[in-house]
Each structure stands twice: as structure tokens, then as C-alpha cells.
Amino acid sequence: MTPAPSPATRNFLTAHWKWLAVFNYEIDPAILAPLTPRGTELDFDTKLKTYVSIVGFLFRDTRLLGWSIPGHVHFEELNLRFYVQRRMEGEIRRGVVFVKELVPRRAIATVARWCYNENYVVVPMRHTLTPGEAEQGVAPQVKYEYRYRGEWNSLRVACHAEPNVPALDSHEAFILEHYWGYCRQRNGGTLEYRVDHPRWTVWPAAEVEIDCDFAAIYGPEFATVLSRKPESAFVADGSAVSVARPTWLR
Prior knowledge:
Low-confidence stretches: 1-9
Strand content: over 45%
Oligomer: single chain
Number of helices: 5
CATH superfamily: Acetoacetate decarboxylase-like
Order of helices and strands: EHEEEEHEEEEHEEEHHEE
Distance between the termini: 28 Å
Shape: globular
Number of strands: 14
Largest sheet: 7 strands, mixed, barrel
Strand order of the largest sheet: 1-3-4-5-10-11-13
CATH class: Mainly Beta
CATH architecture: Beta Barrel
Structural class: mainly beta
């Protein structure tokens, strides 16, 4: 489990993130360099590779500043993200940067744009879920869909039945064990925020189906990367999550 935040930390958002479908693609660092927030650098795994990931998941029991907003408590999200680190004296903070985040709820997108300058897009979304039951040998199957420019796009993963908590030096841990978020601001500065949750159980993918117009939503450069078969994919069970209020990097 990650260390508990300081008592002085006030949460901006609390929720349960559930059934994260994670699709990972190796990418040329030169594509990400212009998007890397000031004060951070790209993070590489033990094989000196860096990745972008498409992550679909469910928000449950969502609260902003302790308040639930009617119609915005349970919903889907799909995001494209990459991995960075911030080197400090005696500490390395490993985090994520979001390229674009899709949600079906306008208030969530508006608040995230206002407070974090995150690139949220509001689109119709839906999902299909068959939860896994590890003790019965049943693996999860998850499908996330979004409608963009009048067309439904979908990502589906069916998993092997054997779940595990990834070893800290594993590829899956590299993807999941980033507990900070970084956002570039319009003035060139960077916001930093902490995300706290326990370590998650993972089911490796047995079958992946992706039917998306990535060029339309992410542009041609990312579409070239995302048109390939993912280098890896898995489903994480998720947990309660708390997102701290952002602070400016100095």
C-alpha cells in the first residue's frame, strides 16, 4: 500500500476506480518530449522503454471536495496517458501525464479543466462487464465504448483466470505504480497532485479487440502508434482512490 498522505493534504476527489482495462504501447520518446511538463522527465522501464497506455475504467461513488453531484457519481472514463518522473533531493516521484481523457459527464470535465487544465472531452460512453471470480476460476471480460463524430468506438479485453499482484520490478508494476499526476499549464508551469490507492490485483489479457478511430480522437502521430497491436494488456481490479488538491511546482 502507498504511504498515507499527510494530514495537511486535502482531497480534491475521492472515488472507487474499478475494472481498469489497460492497453500498453511502446512509443518513441521524441513524440512525448514536447508534451512532458516542465520539472519532469520521461520515465523508462527496466528495459529502457517508455509507453503510452489507453486505460478504460469505472468511476464509482465519486465525490468532489466531499460532495456527490447528482448524475456524476457513477460513470466511465477512457484516457490516454504516459509516464514521467520528478527527481527531488532524496526522492523520485513517479507519475502520469494525460494526453486526453474521455468522460460522459460534463460537470466532471468542466471542473477538471478549470482546476487542473486537463484535456477532457465529453462523449457518450457505455461499458459491458463480466467481473472475475478468482476463487471460481472465472476471468473478467471488460468492454468500454465511446461515441465520437457519430460512430461508436470500442476496446475489449478478455483475461486469463489466474490473477496476481505484480512484482515491483515487473512490467505491470511499471505501468500501475505511478502515484503522482502532472499537468502542463497555459503559462508553461506545472501542477502536481498525489493519487493514493493500494496495490491492485491484475489479470493478464488472453484476448484483445480494439475498434477505434484513434486518428480522429488523438491525431495522426498517436494513431500510428495505437494502430499496432498492444505490447501488453491486462485488467486491474481497482480500489478506493483519493486525489489530492494540486500544487504548483517551484
